[in-house]
């Protein structure tokens, strides 16, 4: 049965990567999980945000990594979104984990280490997952496959997804060689004939980002995709028939 993950929270209707968008997944959808993105502040705190720059989603500017957590907490998130929402700030990983442990949702944490590698982010994250006892609820993904290798070294049983945006040949062999639990690809590659079957042959699942319309969701399901990572988990639930 295909699973549904809410991309950056319920970001189709609420400001992405905010506690509001995460809480709404639990309150208003039938999603199985949440996908979110993490970065590291100047003073080494893990925070939840997609962009390296503050400009698009907050009322701040410049690089996130050049600000301390105290400075970042003064900013508002979602200033680009139409609608009236309670003021949101950049969530910390700790804030999120405090909430996550009150739910049964799985979380796919995407480590945004492709532009800046954020040395030590993997160690910090794994230590925090263990501290909160969330080993079963947290999965990991990154476009930087060296990050995935570091996660696997720190926690061999970790469920890791290799993010990709390319037409990789022999994807099943490659993903298996990395000890991956999943390949998380842009939709076009998930639709390529044979890709899902190749992965399944290796016991690896396929996650697609970011199908936001029903027709594409159905095509992905028909192609054998295991998880839809979407801004609209409500639409995905209808397509799947929940
Ligand atoms: O993890 C899937 C997807 O989030 C990857 O792309 O840019 O939305 O983080 P992006
Ligand atoms: Mg992401």
Structural commentary:
This protein has one domain: TIM Barrel, CATH 3.20.20. It has about 240 residues and is an alpha/beta fold. Strands 1-2-4-5-6-7-8-9 form an eight-stranded parallel barrel, surrounded by five helices. The chain contains ten helices and nine strands. α4 links the parallel β4 and β5. The termini are close together. α3 runs parallel beside α4 and α6 runs parallel beside α8.
Observed structural traits:
TIM Barrel; binds SN-glycerol-3-phosphate; single chain; 10 helices; eight-stranded parallel barrel; binds magnesium ion; alpha/beta; 33% helix; 242 residues; 9 strands
Write the layout of secondary structure elements.
Elements: E1 3-7, H1 19-28, E2 33-40, E3 46-48, H2 69-73, H3 93-100, E4 106-111, H4 121-132, E5 138-142, H5 145-154, E6 160-164, H6 171-177, E7 182-186, H7 187-190, H8 195-201, E8 205-209, H9 214-222, E9 227-230, H10 233-240
Parallel strand pairs: 1-2, 1-9, 2-4, 4-5, 5-6, 6-7, 7-8, 8-9
Antiparallel strand pairs: 2-3
Number of strands: 9
* Second-tier CATH architecture: Alpha-Beta Barrel
Low-confidence runs of at least 5 consecutive residues? none
How much of the sequence is in beta strands? 15-25%
Q: Ends: how far apart?
A: 11 Å
The CATH class is identified as: Alpha Beta
Radius of gyration: 17 Å
Outline the biggest β-sheet: 8 strands, parallel, barrel
CATH homology group: Phosphatidylinositol (PI) phosphodiesterase
Structural class assignment:
alpha/beta
* Overall structural domain count: 1
Q: Please write the string of helix (H) and strand (E) elements.
A: EHEEHHEHEHEHEHHEHEH
Number of helices: 10
> Which ions, cofactors or small ligands are bound in this entry?
SN-glycerol-3-phosphate, magnesium ion
Strand order of the largest sheet: 1-2-4-5-6-7-8-9
Would you give the CATH topology?
TIM Barrel
What is the share of helical residues? 25-40%
Mean pLDDT: 98
Assembly state: single chain
């Amino acid at each position: 049965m295909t699973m549904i993950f809410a991309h950056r929270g319920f970001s189709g209707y609420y400001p992405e990567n905010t506690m509001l968008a995460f809480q709404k997944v639990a309150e208003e959808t039938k999603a199985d999980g949440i996908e979110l993105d993490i970065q590291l502040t100047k003073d080494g705190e893990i925070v939840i945000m997609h962009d390296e720059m503050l400009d698009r989603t907050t009322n701040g500017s410049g690089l996130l990594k050049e600000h301390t957590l105290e400075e970042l907490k003064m900013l508002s998130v979602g200033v680009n979104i139409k609608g009236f929402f309670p003021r949101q700030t950049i969530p910390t990983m700790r804030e999120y984990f405090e909430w996550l442990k009150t739910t049964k949702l799985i979380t796919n944490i995407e480590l945004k280490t492709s532009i800046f590698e954020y040395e030590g982010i993997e160690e910090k994250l794994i230590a925090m997952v263990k501290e909160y006892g969330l080993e079963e609820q947290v999965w990991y993904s990154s476009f930087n496959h060296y990050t995935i290798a570091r996660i696997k070294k720190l926690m061999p049983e970790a469920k890791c997804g290799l993010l990709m945006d390319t037409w990789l040949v022999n994807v099943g062999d490659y993903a298996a060689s990395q000890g991956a639990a999943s390949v998380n690809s842009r939709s076009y590659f998930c639709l390529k004939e044979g890709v899902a079957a190749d992965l399944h042959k290796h016991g690896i699942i396929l996650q697609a980002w970011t199908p936001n319309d029903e027709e594409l969701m159905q095509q992905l399901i028909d192609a054998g995709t295991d998880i839809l990572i979407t801004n609209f988990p409500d639409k995905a639930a209808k397509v799947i028939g929940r």
